[in-house]
Sequence to fold (1338 residues):
Amino acid sequence: MHHMLHIKNGIVIDTKNGIKAEKMDIFVKEGKIVEESEIDKSQCKVIDASNKLVVAGGVDMHAHIAGSKINTGRTMRPEEMRMVRQIANKFRASVGRVLLTSPAIGYEYAKMGYTTSFEAAQPPIGALHTHEELDAIPMVDKAALPVFGNWHFVFKYVAENDIEKLKTFIAWAIERTKGFGVKVVNPGGVEAWMYGGNCRSLDDEVPNFGVTPREIITSLIKATEELNLCHSVHLHCNNLGNPGNFETTIETMKLANGFSNDKRQVLHVTHVQFNAYAGSSWRDVGSGAAEIAKVVNGMDNVTIDMGAAIFGHATAMTGDAPFQFTLHKLLGARWSNKDSEVEGGAGIVPIMYLPKNPVHALQWAIGLELGLLVESDKVVLTTDFPNGGPFTEYPYVMAMLMSKKMREKELERVSPYVQKAANLPSIDAEKTLDEVMHMTRALSARVLGLENKGHLGVGADADISIYDFNPNEIDTSNDYEIINKAFRNALYTIKGGVIIVKEGQLVDEVWGTTYWVDATNKVDTEAIEEDLDKYFELYYSVEKEHYGVEEAWIKNPTRLVMG
Amino acid sequence: MLVIKPKVDFVVTVEAEITPDLAEDLEKAKNFEVYYGKDKVKLKELFEITKEGDDKKLVLDGDFSKVKWIGCRMEDGEIVVKGNVGANCGAYMKGGKITIEGNADDWLGAEMSSGEIVVKGNVKNCVGCAYYGDMQGMKGGKITIEGNAINYIGEKMAGGEIEIKGNAGDFIGTEMTNGLIVIHGDCGFVGGDMKGGEIRIGGKFELMPTFKKSEEGFVGDVNVGGKGVVKTL
Amino acid sequence: MMEVEVISGRTLDQGATVEEKLTDEYFNAVNYCELSEEDYNALGLAEGDKVKVKTEFGEVVVFAKKSDELPKGVVFIPMGPYANQVIDPSTDSTGMPQFKGVKGSVEKTDENVLSVKELLEVI
Amino acid sequence: MAQKVICTFCGSVCDDVEFDVEEFKAKKFCKLGRSKFSKKERIKAPMVDGKEVSYEEATQKAAEILVNAKKPLLYGWASTVNEAIRLGVILTEKVRGVYDQCASVCHAPGTLAVIEEGLPGASLGAIKNRADLVIFWGSNPMEAHPRHPLRYSMSAKGLLISGRKDRKVVVVDVRKTKTAKKADVFVQIKPGYDYPIISALRALIKGEDIEVDEVGGVSKEQLKELAEMMKSAKYGVIFYGLGVTQSRGRDRNIENAVKLIQLLNRYTRFVIWPMRGHYNVVGSGEVPAWEVGYQYAIDFSRGYPRFSPAEFSANEVLQRKDCDAALVIAADPVAHFPKASVKHLKKIPVIQIDPFPNMTTLVADVVIPSAVYGLEAEGTAYRMDGIPLRVKKVIDTEYWSDEKILEELLKKVVELRGE
Fold:
């Protein structure tokens, strides 16, 4: 139910608006945060938040929550679905260990005080499927990022160095897929995989197209910036998952040089943990996190997210099909693959991170190192769900970033290999609560270009989470157990002004919106019509007029027109 | 010892995860919750329960072919089923003994790690197998079938012993890594992707073409670099 | 009588009439058994003749047809209610009955081919 | 005027076909699709115990049957759209019944193989663009998916392939089917020997010798040739069909085939894909997978989903007499299930939702006629390769759509349960 809300006496952290653990009241009307004067106090529901932390709802800017990949993952792994979180009652039955059902995804985010989550890789031709699953996730706002980096249209326009047509194509494609921005996964590498290969360096040529990952990335950044989309290019780098790949990652980040945007980064490099390995083989693999952090910290136009690895079960699922095959060979595990028309591909492999396994322990350490060494205004907290592990473990990561003591305790149970191959044991830095709230709210919202998310200023969406501790009284270095527990079970989660969670329990079900970006006003799609017709006739297996998603097919869409 | 008799002919199956632990307390046993279709009911609503003596033993007297999960996860004690029994009997069993005087259904002793199961009659499929998505089937203990079995015997088996006195169907010891399967009669496909362990067969069988003849029998499966042994009894 | 393996499967006619189950077209699309020329001749069959197909799971009378697709010893009945009288219903824990490769026999018969409705009555 | 429509017959879901509403005439369709888009006998009105009633009354009676049952089976779903399937899954969860779908007697063994080994596959567009070797294994598209060879596989043109001549086509089957007659190579096998043949191929591809001269009716020489052909393809595909899933070995055949594909990808590119039957049988597995975690054979009696084909697949449930009511939608189990299963269906209350009278209508207590998707109602369907397509509504009808019927049914179930 929609109420006017008066959240009273809470201790607010709102980094975007410079509020650092100050006692203040928050007012909510019609799903938005409003001035006190807008509220009729006699009609208003009061929430006493005395001595409790009040922040904006968490924003997960990179997770795999919807579409054919996670659903094939569920199908492949019935053992994942045996964990029962909730039997059917007022709410839907909810099951899943790391891979969750769609209702469970919404419920678990809500319980943690997260209110927004973005699907980070939407196969364009599968867009309707992705949207159907997004529509099945209750509680949170959502969106999906279509993948561009191996799409033949992109290769063609990059090869022709025709940025205008590339821009037009991007605008067309995002509109057709009801997508949110430009996701790039192993540019060129997935096309090479169609012939059994990969593009591991920025200058490997894509078979039959004469273009390189370097050119693809640069052109996509240029086009995205000229279109001035709300979100930048969102890049899964080449050479993922291979020892020594941190150099590729650094070289890739430098491609952002020369581009700028006064609102946000021009390049977001995602789940960097998987791209931050030093060494030359799995025998001498080490952490490249410090070198990467140095580069990111020295640039003002690149952001990253951690892609932290959590010990326990996970499922690797990416558009990086050649990497997934490598992982399958490495682990001898089940393997699904999907080559998709002329758009790229994807793969899925179950994995389990074991503390005593040297490589896994190193991956665990590297994720945390990135969170610690990169400035808090440039690194978002993620696990690349479900690749690095469950998003339900974000509270663990939060606590680890804030407490060296907790890290020391955890280091005792992991492979000693970490001591020599990683930086983590020697890192003294501890993030503050403000910083961690920034990394999970204001920053992720800014990276995505969502102006009404991640903060509690007037006009913001009334997505609010309240946690059961007083930030002014907690010692985050020592009270890590309290932190870890409190962030798992929000005292209140408020979504669009509706109380959906109370004391960690679901109390109401809401359906968030699905954002999509419309930049077609900035281009004339006529310019690429002939190319589209030709490609659809020759290389697609569906008709062009049946390709894509209409807004009316989406449950609760929000169209964002690019200015 | 408790004697448990069905009171009615069951319209749909009953899921009763009963173990010999129940023998300790009659009241507790009577109020033990089981599923009858969508209804959660007390054991006493469906079964007549009487206590005879103090040993840790259940005697299931009657037709239990529509009762599933009997003896699941049991650790010790004894269960005797006087008639037939439903699916998943003795699944995940850790110890004790189950004797079934009639026939058993699918998934008998699935993923069991210790203990003993004896079936006087026939059994269906997936004896000692791994449930879907799990990496290992039976890890220890012994299953003896006096009659026949159908398909999927000891799939992904990692230890223990399965002995079938009669015939069996297809897919014996598929992806088996350890343990012993003995079939006195005939069976169908044997040894696909077998990595280790031993299969001994008394009658006719169809071995995968990917085994190599050696002094100790046939060794394979070469597709997985297996060291499994298949030989005649 | 002849020992055979019975298989069932889709055909174009069966598919094209599958949403008209209570019509003669569907009846004609599924009420026959194909035999290899060798088996057909061995049973002394001719156009319009009927055969009784028997397995451990049941029996059914269907029209006999000659086919150049089948090897000797294998007979084919289009998927549907006639085939389902004789196929192996057990799923062996997989959920899938064995619709193909069921050992049985075929013999020439004068008995009538039941209609779809009559078939349902006898189940 | 003919307009482009999307065919709702088989898993090929052809979207280049045309339909003239005024003349009620289908163009470019195959024989199967034409039958779908033609006028035929419909169930006239909702019925309870053979008497015509309103939709209201029929859904009320259906809701009562479902709510009163200890364990209802809700089966079918392959020939309806995702929007209806989703409601069906939620309905099954509400009444704590068993959800099963047509794949159970079709391609579900392939799903079990996905659990064991995964599914290294490709969209049909990727295959038409790249595959220089197409193997139909126990599948016969000329009869079951007539336009598949033309649009996606045998003679389809694409990026690297200019047509039939650039492609080698192999059929592995027990019969010399119509498809086999069009192939370059036909490998005739003994019924039930797919599994050992695949094992032998794996060994030969790995470079291991096999110590037998023949496997399942195929000579070692022929196996070696096939292995070599697979290994030397640039991009190969196995399209498997019911010949594999419905015969001896079932899911294990496919599991073994997936292992073969895994191995082949160490040498070249190779994919495998099932020739799914009904136009949205993929959706009837995908929807429950995201809603409740599993594709089929799902039991909700405990208030949460559990998966077990041995216990909760429709044929097991029926043969074990483990359901006391059934809702059948967009399927005809009385025609397509073995006799032993049909026996129990005849004994319990049955609700049927379908546009057309069929054998299940003859045993149903409640019959609820529905609109034909693709023609009279729109919604989302997944082609055999998982590609989503929105099937269209091109003509008006008085019939309720499955989605509307289920919405109403769900509402009434909630009311009856006092929630």
